[in-house]
Amino acid sequence: MNVNSRQQTLVKSMRQEANDVISVELVSATADSLSPFSAGGHIDVFLKNDLVRQYSLINDPADLDRYMFAVLLENMGRGGSAYIHKKLRVGDVIEVSEPRNNFALVESAPLQVFVAGGIGITPFMSMADYCQHHNLPFKLYYCARHPESTAFTALLADRLGDDLHIHFDEGDRSKSLNLAGVFDAHKGAQFYCCGPKGLMAAMESMAGDKGESLITEDFNPASVLKEDTSTNSEGFDVVISSQGLTVHVEQGQSILDVLGTVNIDVEKSCEAGVCGTCVVGYLEGEPVHNDVVLMPDEQTSHVALCVAGCRSSKLVLDI
Fold first, then answer.
1. 224-279 confidence digits (pLDDT tens)
2. Helix axis angle, 153-160 to 122-133, nearest 10°
3. Residues 121, 214: one domain?
4. Strands 245-249 and 138-144: what pairing?
5. Which DSSP category does 99 fall into?
6. The domain that contains 291 carries what CATH number?
7. For residue 34, what pLDDT is reported?
């Protein structure tokens, strides 16, 4: 796996899906084919001014010639959604990462139950497509405030029929979806949730109370809890193998920040261990993996510099 490789893509189409929600369709800008993705997967999108954002792929994984994602305009965001809404145009060429998946289906489960809030519908679109193609039973609960601000309702209703339940609460918490009822109706299922922090927190609490299995996806750095970056109270040394340069990381510092002080530039985005942009290889050492990106087999050779610590006294990076 080359965690830092990029693909050149062309913006083929952009479409208004709801108030403040647009979809973007990408195709290859070269003779190379796009890399395949799995249901629930996402890509990093590299924009101007060093903006890097992560978006779930909303099209069918069986589509081998395009990627599609949707973006909610967040006026209080960090600039990525505003750039896509206001500056990205059909015909532009942009780079994207290889697809990754931290939200994969548990196909052995007897039933898949998806609970989406607002723009959190996006990963479930490819997951529902996959379930339909592979005869995996599923239910999709789509929570939103108002119809005019809710994307893809007609498309999903046409595709999913009785497996789709759309719930509008008009912004009134007293009208929220009865989550206890959802869990009680589908005991023993595999539950998934993506959406606002409040919804995911409520789902996590309810899953704990009911003794059910829940998987969540969250691209919001503010909601990621960083662990102590080092179990070594004296810190650790980081060696840049290509230069023979050694820097010291104190307890509480991030490797990424310390490398920046000696002009070692590593691409970064979330700085919370959820995107994978700053993942690099390592040759020696025992890193503490605090990210939610790397799989167990990948942790033996790669590390996310923004949140990683180190149990050993030295970590040698393959950069």
1. 444 444 456 789 999 999 998 999 999 889 999 999 999 998 888 778 787 778 89
2. 20
3. yes
4. unpaired
5. P
6. 3.10.20.30
7. 97
